[in-house]
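Annotated sample (chain length 258).
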Amino acid sequence: MKITWLMYRKELLEMVRSYKLLWIPVVFILLGVMQPITSFYLPNILAASGDISAELLTQLPVPLPADVMVQSLSQYSTIGILIIAIAGMNIVAGERYSGTAALVLVRSVPSLSFIIAKWMGQLTLLFVSFTLGYGGAWYYTAILMGPVRWGDALIAGALYFLWFAFAQSLLLLFSTIFRGSAAAVISLLIMGALSVTYSLIPSWFSWSPARILNFANATFAGEVNYTAATFVTSVLGCLVCLAASAWLLRRQGIPDQS
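Output written by the structure step:
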């Protein structure tokens, strides 16, 4: 446990030095606040373009606060996942090919501790970034559009973070196998495939982790019907990815001196 904690602190220090703890939160904040601001000022933007008649502008529907929050979250399910993949595609591969992983693991550091520290470090970065960005979206939606039920907003945010944790676990696994962009591309393809298959045949894939996004969006409408299978699959998926990453790291010829 102590070794994992020390490795976790090392991950946080590297994020500070590489400015990940600066630019990723900034991007997430921009993603969060852009949607409510754009939705509120959309009539003014269209009027300034001069291509829309005044009568049509007056007929534009005013989005509800819940709808704006759903749209803000959808930005994270697409662009946010892409940012996660780009930022973490070399999380293991970078140290493995540079020789850093070998130097660390021969110093009585278990492979599982190495992997868990990497995972916890990335989740900490995601938690800080998503909390700031989602909080910004919540604040501007409440100011510009109207109040948002805090209970629904907290549940929806927690559900999205579980989806992020699953995505990060997949990325960690493939970063252990592949190098650079290959890990990011394969992870994105799998995440996309999960979302598409659930959208096309929801009855067959009711257990899919992608259903978490549906739960989050339905929370604001008050029509959500949670199923335990989705959460069990998501949590087990994270655990399997962590265990497989540690096992693959040992199989790659890096001795585990634990």
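Annotation: The longest helix spans residues 111-144.
Annotation: The CA atoms of residues 85 and 185 lie 8 Å apart.
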